[in-house]
Amino acid sequence: MSKAEVTMEVGNDGVAVITMSNPPVNALALAIIAGLKEKYAEAMRRNDVKAIVVTGKGGRFSGGFDINVFQKVHKTADISHLPDASIDLLVNTVEDAKKPSVAAVEGLALGGGLEVAMACHARIAAPKTQLGLPELSLGVMPGFGGTQRLPRLVGLSKAVEMMRLSKSISSEEGYKLGLVDAIVSSEELLKVSRRWALDIVDKRKPWVRSLHQTEKLGSVSEALDILKISRQQARKTVPHLPQHQACLDVIEEGIVHGGYSGLLKETKVFNELVLSDTAKGLIHVFFAQRTTSKVPNVTDIGLKPRNVKKVAVIGGGLMGSGIATALITTNVQGLVTKGKLTQDKAHKALSMLKGVLDYSEFKDIDMVIECSHLQAVIENIPLKQKIFSEIEKICSPHCILATNTSTIDLNLVGEKTSSQDRIIGAHFFSPAHVMPLLEVVRTEKTSAQVILDLMTVGKAIKKIPVVVGSCTGLPSIGLSSHMHKVHIFGQFRLQDLSGYGVAVAVGKEFATAFQGRTFESPLVNLLLKNGGMVLKDYCKQNGKGYYIYEKGSKPRPDPSVLPIIEESRRLANIMPGGKPISVTNQEILEMILFPVVNEACRVLDEGVVVRASDLDITSVLGMSFPSYRGGIVFWADEVGPYYIYTCLKKWSAMYGTFFKPSSYLEQRATKGIPLSAPASASPASNSRL
Length: 689
Known about the structure:
The protein is α/β, with parallel strands linked by helices. The protein has three domains: 5-275, 2-enoyl-CoA Hydratase, Chain A, domain 1 (Alpha-Beta Complex); 311-470, Rossmann fold (3-Layer(aba) Sandwich); 521-581, no CATH class. β13 and β14 (437-442) form a beta hairpin. The longest helix is centred in the C-terminal third of the chain and has 21 residues, at 585-605.
């Protein structure tokens, strides 16, 4: 790996070009920050240097502060690992220097990268450069002066929008707003930036210290009104994320008491936010998502992904149509956005989607995705085996044979074929063209090449692929099924949407495969019996279910279902003495989620996932677990494994084996070992991995 370094070259024109180099995005590692200080000190000392141009190597200015430092802070609870960049570097060294600085910006300037650029006295950018302050998405806020300089350069309303939504803008928009002083081609970027810096020296261009600008802030009363509205919006939309209110408080400090006072408060509050539970959770998710692309014996053995150009989807139901849409639309629109495809040609490409009634045209395809979920090809093992046996005979020997099943063990699906090394699960989430998670499900015989190929397809269509082992149900389904089946809380509208065929079929599979581990609710069968309806009639499309669906109005609970729910409670034996149990909101949350943690422990123990953080990403992207909680396993370690274990043990004695703690949870809890801590693989996990 290339080392992080800062270099300086002084030209005959007297301009020192300081270049940050830390591939791939020139992150502001501690070495880069130290290097900037060192090179600036040298430039200030040298009589042959009149002005400075700051830029990044490799077509990128900087992607922001190196958040690996945050992980170190979280492990040690020591904020001294954070650099003093805001005042020491960007105010004292750059902005208040006696020699002007111009930022030559290309590719991206995000977070701390943009903050470095804003401390310079001008910003020259290449076309389509990405500019933004996304720190709030990580549980913190801009910490190198961004809360003060951005409002002074683009106006308060736009600055608040960019920070609160972590929304980046193009250099073209930045030019219109005043964040960028000029846009020039990449080839001309350094040349124009050098000339601009010398023009500042010669007073042909203004020497602008952005921290001292106030024109775009408006009056104090106007600014406070804008911040008041923003606070109300934050309380309504992100009540659990403290960084939003904190950021607005810091912006207000600078407006009322001046930019420098705002910087001092920014540093203080930033250091507090870094240590917050929210930041710990969001930063963990950030790294966990990137770690999913590292799969032992797949991504580290020198394989290169094959080109998958043509895909067949079997099944035209909700999932099949969604997957087809995801495969086509994302790729085509991506080319249009990049200017590599006109809109007319995009429409022509979309018209290449073709429907067929048999497998005869599968001869030259690269991948088949059999779509079982949501009533297209029902969850039926013999039927799936028949489908794969048939398509194996027609498809080429290199064709990937994938299924979207979320219930059936793939080792059974491919049992009747002679191509078990090509059998793989491609488990999308509904709606498939919207939901970001893709579980790549490998069997005991799936080849590393096929796994890598499907991971690559997933990334190409903007999904987050997570590689998991095959079993009845998948990690995401195994975890979220507990939320669906604990009767105190259920995703009833989801069941209305998908129809009850899937619920009944999956319920039977789970009850058989995981005896004593699923909550067997009689509710669906009671609905069918008491309503006198056939299975297919109960769904949103027919206006029947837990909710009443009428055109032009919002779904509303169906009161006729309430007596059926009461009967289900009685039969399920969750009303000791015939009366509903009395529980607090906190107990409801724990009775829903602690069994999910318990199931996660079994998944970890059996080696179904590569690492605990993969389950965190699966829970966040697949079952909408709050990302600011860090994912299901991360959250469980924060709550405390021993507390979870004792609660489950108590409920198991009161309500049955559904709550019985797994051996993995018991061992970790009683020995004080975090659930996420790696362990020597058990025989079961060895066989899967």
